[in-house]
Design goal:
Shape: globular
Low-confidence stretches: 2-13, 236-243
Radius of gyration: 16 Å
Number of helices: 5
Structural class: alpha/beta
Largest sheet: 8 strands, mixed, barrel
Order of helices and strands: EEHEEHEHEHHEEEEE
Distance between the termini: 14 Å
CATH class: Alpha Beta
Number of domains: 1
CATH superfamily: Glycosidases
Strand order of the largest sheet: 2-3-5-6-7-8-9-10
Amino acid sequence: VAFLVVIGIGGTAHAARTDMLDVSDYNNNGHALTTQQFVNLRNNYGIKAITVKISEGQTWNASTAKANISDAQQAGLYTNGYHFARYNSVATAQAEARHAVQQAQVDGLGIGSVIVTDAESSAQSGVSKATNDKANQAFSQIIQQAGYRCDIYTMGSWVNAKMTVANGSGWIAYYPYHVTTDRYTSNHAWQFSSTMTFAGLSGRYDVSQLYDNYYTANTDKNAVISNSQTTHVTTQTAAKSNK
């Protein structure tokens, strides 16, 4: 996820809880993470859920998705998927949703998992809020008809401005320079950094704090690993974004 523009970096952010990690072909030098790497993330960083990029637009598929989903499941982590949205109409949203469902099934994403529409592209920025809302609803309907659950990921500045994200839903990206307080607590999750580093992994990662159990199959997220073993919000320096 996270096509947000980073203005400055003041070090690795480890302030809010690292409950969820999202991964794509761009991570780990283009290789899927191994089961042991996911176990390390679970045991040492408190990761409970993984959301894997599975598709984009109407034709693109992630080459590492199948292995990432399988390896995360073997590590005992809840697995979900996300689709990078290029749609800007009901018809294109429906086409992309069908593609996302097909690819999720090919990649072994379990029925009942979340498939997120990652709505942050120029396609959505160029149309009205009403158009985006109709398109997001059309995407969600097809996802749910296939037996999956759906959610919207977008940047904080777009929430209820470029598209509706109701309380009790949504995964919101916002990277404050100082991570001093919980944000977007009425939503499912807050992605607070795109620059997290982990021992044993190459590159930087997107990390999110969960506020409910939506991304853990509506079961207690602390059954994976207790929040008491993770870092809570304190005054820290994180990546600063213009979003």
